[in-house]
User: What shape does this take?
Amino acid sequence: MKNNGWRKSFVWCILVIILMLTLVTSFFAAGDTISLNAYDKDSIHAAASDSSYLIRLTALHIESVAADLAACGYDVQWLTLTDDSVDLIVNDHEYRVLEGQGYTFSIVEKSRPFREIQAELSEGLDDVPPGYLDLAEIYDEMNTTATTYPLLCQMVDLTATYGTEPTYENRHLYALKISDNVCADEDEPTFLMVSCHHCREIVTPVIALYAIEQFTTQYGSNPQVTALVDAYEIWVCPVWNPDGYEYVFNVNNMWRKNRHYFSQYSSYGVDLNRNYPFGWDGPGGGSTDPFSDTYKGPSIASEAETQTMIAFSDDQHFAKVMDYHSYGREVLYGYIPSYHSHPFYSFFQSEAVSISYQAGYGGSIRVPSAEGENFQWQIFRNGSYANLMETHTSFQPTYASALAEAAQIWPSTVWLLERPISVSGNVYDASTGAALTASVTIEGVSFVNGECFITEPSFGRFHLFLPPATYTLTFEVPGYVPQSHQVTVTLESAEILDVPVHVPNETPLAPTITGPTSGNAGTTYKYTFVTTDPDGDDVYYYIDWGDGTYEDWIGPYLSGHQVFVNHKWDEKGSYTIQAKAKDTHNAESGWGTLDIEMPLSSEHSLRLQTRIHQQSPSIEQLFFSRVLRMFM
Ligand SMILES: [Zn+2]
Assistant: This one.
């Protein structure tokens, strides 16, 4: 390959490619729908290595062809399916593969910068409404809202807050936090509204910005909205794929993935809604082909955007999540049932129907077509009430139409925020009040995928969305005594459980008894009792003097402090003093013992007799009857 002939033909080749490139560019700029076969495929690749095409593919048995293509990771636009055709969005690579496999298709539209489309739409109109905002304008809008409503809104740089990696093109991810006392981290349930994992779905930031406007402008005047903003911490993330969003505006309006470049393949982008851990490596996971529009990435949560969402969610433990996409006008719920089961599947289904009606989508719902998606991971990881909403009927409708869609679905946002959390509450240390990270298990309900119900770290807050039934919930914290509660849940339940948990109680040590081990009956002696409770609890003592008399749980006394108790034995003999201790939780120690001898002294007993006579004639009689018996 090192001869001059080859070099010459190489140079010619380059010249031809440049010529073809110029021709192809001018053809596409004319906006024609052109049959693919009119072009040399290599020149298309050279002309627009990052272009996408909306193609219309025709075939017999089109539905099964489309299903096969979708299974291979092709981006099938199911709403366009007819008896003999379906639309797909393909990149150059996929385009060439389809062509090589002999499929029949035509180009409906070739990607171009969205800015250009927007400019054309606005041209010649006197009263142009403000159109779609680009990334900088969206952030400006969020900042302006935060400045206008400083007590309600806060712009949060999530990448900086969680110390995660910026995106491939070095951008940070932002949220607008909306709540009363927004600057404080309050003990309130959290709601995540996230848009634009897929950057061409530009209706979805419009929906997020519309919601921001409603929450802020109606606060204080609309009691319903005011109550929600007071009760929740609401996090709105209008653009989760900022690199892609910029690319849509400036280069390719059909782009879906992020802009991560993989030099080993010369490919761009990971489908950010296929990169989450749940189901990533299962049969429902996204494509393994780096050129596919649904490429799931080289590893679980490989993308900075995913890592930031994970850190953000692990901190906030969102009670509710809505992930906006387009298009389709339907609500997606749960996992793919044939791959992953969930005990609350039918409950998820009926909730999705309600949300769909509230959005004006007529109850239209479906299970997702893939796994590794954000909302599925939120269900799995934090037991969130999480769904995905496919909005509108196209990716880039007129701005007025996008705005109308946002207004239409707004009631569904209010509805899902008002949807009661079946059971919620806080788990904390009973003695210090400190919030605890607890796991919650539901007796008799098995989560075969290992779903977690963990309290969030700041307030020990938990949330459980449960289908109507009676449940036994057990709260467990390492180092604490597990605690169970029985709750009966209905669709309207908003049960609040207070869960103060205790460290396991340790029993006090067996008491040590000190004092004279021999002496005379009838003489009072002082004995010392002491024990230590490992938890430092106060203690009580039970003392059996061995002569049929007892001290019945005297106390409380401080742990480790000596307790003095006097006793006398009336009769000579051998005795064993036994003492046990218990703490304030009624945990009893073993017995401590002390053996003593009380030989009778007659001289002493006569002195004693006199004293007893003065005090108690009946005891005197008893004493003498016993003494007489001894000498008889
Ligand atoms: Zn999407």
Observations:
- Residues 288 and 295 are 6 Å apart (CA to CA).
